[in-house]
Amino acid sequence: MKKIRLGYIDYINCLPVYYAIEQGQVPVAAEMVKGPPTKLNKMFINGKLDITPISSIEFARNSETAVILPEISISADGAVESILLFSKVPVTELDGLKVSLPTSSATSVVLLKILFEHYYHVEVQYSLKEPNLKKMLRYSDAALLIGDDALLAREAVGKQGGESLYITDLGSAWKEFTGHRMIYALWVINRKFIEAHPEEVESISNAFIKAKEYGFANIPALIDKAHEKTGLPQNVLKEYFDTIKYGFGEEEQKALLTFYDYAYKSGLIEERVKLNIWGEEIG
Q: Which residues are CB-contacts of 77 (< 8 A; sequence separation ≥ 6)?
């Protein structure tokens, strides 16, 4: 079989899964493609990736193409640390104001829109911008950042003096609103790949689970690699890896369906979604 075309979100939150693969500790014959979530989402939908982490909202929009790999996601139960709204005024005072959204995000943009409509009850004007906090706030009263961009921006805001910004962690807001954790990304496999290589899917799924386990058995190494990539302090990175969770059991599935329910109510997806999980629906 040819190498798997494997997506890799180019943020440190994917390190716990990909570290073992990159180090050769868990063999996966793959051609790695790195990029922000929106790039990998598009490549997968266009058939250019076989397996990838995908923004959870994009599974809802493309469930006919994707099957979820079991036992693996990116989630947080409350604060997520890396999906942050930076605003010049408290979030409840943004009604009628401008909010910049990053071109790198899909799920977090939907999550913010849901929270604005159903939790904060504000209407704002949106615009898409490259993920750079200073530039975004030149044009807007608030800016959403995700991943490494959010972590680095929060660190920079904390160091600078003068007028401070309000920082809202969307994971915390979602938990306060619904009582649920939030599922940000899923690992999915293309249905056409399953049809062409059904005998390979179980071993691939098991490899990702083993890779995740290896990553969490080697947190100090993950912190060192993340520090090398971002320059963030090691105590910040340790807290981050303690915060992000990677399971996908019954509780995570229920939370994800709650997110999809609100996305449907807000008109952000066209229909309610059924979770197609490898080994449960197909296999």
A: 175, 181, 245
- Pair of tokens at residue 233: 């302090």
Q: How far apart are CA 81 and CA 102, in angstroms?
A: 16
Give the count of domains, the chain: 2
Whether 204 and 146 have beta carbons less than 8 Å apart is answered as no
In terms of domains, do 160 and 27 share one?
no
Q: Which two tokens stand for residue 250?
A: 């019954």
Structure token digits, residue 212: 């995740």
On whether the CB atoms of residues 259 and 183 are closer than 8 A, the answer is yes
The H helix count followed by the E strand count for the chain is 12, 10
Identify residue 32 by its one-letter amino acid code: M
| CATH label of the domain that carries residue 125 | 3.40.190.10
Reported as a pLDDT band with limits 50, 70 and 90, residue 282 is: very low
Tens digit of pLDDT for each residue in 44-80? Answer: 999 999 999 999 999 999 999 999 999 999 999 999 9
Does some domain include residue 273?
no
pTM, rounded to two decimals? 0.93
